[in-house]
Specification:
Helix content: 40-55%
Shape: globular
Distance between the termini: 55 Å
Structural class: alpha/beta
Strand content: 15-25%
Number of helices: 14
Strand order of the largest sheet: 1-2-9-6-5-3-4
Order of helices and strands: HEEHEHEHEHEHEEEHHHHHHHEEH
Length: about 375
Amino acid sequence: MNDRANNAAVRTAKRISVAAMRPYDVLIGAGLTDALGAITASVCSGAARAMLVADDTVDALYGDRAAASLLAAGLAVGRFSFLHGEGSKTLSTYARLLDALAGARLTRGDVLVALGGGVTGDLTGFAAATYLRGVRFVQAPTTLLAAVDSSVGGKTAVDLPAGKNLVGAFHQPSVVAFDTDTLSTLPDDTFADGMAEAIKTGVIGDESLFERLAHGRPAAQEDAVARCVEIKGDIVRLDERDTGMRQLLNLGHTVGHAVELLSNFTVSHGHAVAMGMAVMARAAHAADLTEPDVPARIEAALQNSGLPVRCPFGAEALARAVVQDKKRTADGIVLVIPERIGRCVLRTTPLDALAGFLAGGTEGAAL
């Protein structure tokens, strides 16, 4: 793609501003992979080197184009690739990435570029937050899940054997550039993972968004992604450090992370979040905390996107796994309760009451 086409891709992209402590834009549009270098250079003035980070699958699909774009923008480009999957989001991979950054002699004035899904963004962002006590990074999501959720908001982390995202930092990107053309290469299950996070966003804060997503893949995908980003951006602006209302974004995640851990990460994040949302909706209904139609509406929306609504683990097993959740406090665990579609509330539940509460949403599952 030539410079004129790159400029057109950037000019026609949807642009959402995230008003974090360090503000940045989220660009959403076709052709942004080939414009990635120009976008990066425009927000990272003075950078001489870029480290392009991607898993092996994304690297094979888009790595050469992204690297060529960065080179064309005048950046010296290093590349770091790792085995795809949640199993690579570890301290070991993180350490190898840090060694690669040091070997490439990146300075505080340089930049990391995360090209891929949530695992890549989380890993790269955490390395950027900690290498030399903080360098800039760019998010270039290639999955729906990363575009609507994990690339925005500055949460970065790696997993421990004890649980998911237990080691991390808040570190906002310099820009997010989502090339919607990458959606065409997503397997159906991977696209469904993103739909789980998008549906979650509608349940939290926008019933009309939920209705647009309730029948499966939306016709206006860019508009749906943009609305998800707007909602998350508004929440991040009010609670960047996750001490209050930002915890609403964890709808389905407490149970979802437990499912991931109990399955040894054989259940993908989006599928686990779908199970978690369905469990929480049914449990809230059993406890008379939600409107009667909420569980059925959430389950139908998830199923229309090919997502599971039944959890293979019982309440006791889930409650034991939740003990490792980073959101646990001395008093219990903060749960997100869907009172109705478009409105959720936070409710602290004592750990010794958690299994009983979850039992209302896990009927028929094995313990």
